[in-house]
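User
Here is a favour to ask of a fellow structure person. I am asking you to supply a protein in sequence and structure-token form. Please set it down just below, with no commentary around it:

Assistant
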Amino acid sequence: ATLGAKKTSIRAQGSSHAGIFGPGVLAGALQMSHGLSETLDVQAQGSFLRVMPSAEQAEQIDTDRNITTARVGLKLNPERNRWFAMTAGLGGGTSAGGPFFAADAGIIFAIENCYFVPFWSISAFVSEPIDAREVELGTNPDMPTTTNVDTPKTTGGNAISWGAKLPLGGRCGEPRPVTLLAGMSVTSLDDGEKGAGFFGLGVGLETSF
């Protein structure tokens, strides 16, 4: 669901993503949403991510493992229905591989009610590097004296997530002062030469007014 005209929410969230055959990622984000109308929200979000390689890999490389991103987007809830909404956004960020531009779109399904809101979502995204730089990835296991390097490329991906929201306080049908969120996700990335996958767990806290 959308917030409703002239209503605002602020959400803080954190998540841990285990890499499938690769390093994991820790992430934190702060998002503000504002209702432009009863069916349309505008969103602004800033995120910080840290790549978490194995202890052995971390000792081998001296690469900045931090990634920062910013995104603005829209959320549309056609006819203010209780079952689904659509999202789209543009953003960018910076990492050891250089700055990048990104775009995303998705759909959210939920069973909106006043007490316990299960949700499911699917999204797709693409990232385009700007002035890409080589990044050290550690020692090649087949050639211990050789260091693996890679340069970011145009990368596409998708994410599937599911979880629930628990509104607390306030009255049904009005902005809730506190909402707890928890969920899981599966994310895949592919740059045309290689892919990566992540399984994530996340929690969040939101206030609306």
About this structure: The radius of gyration is 19 Å.
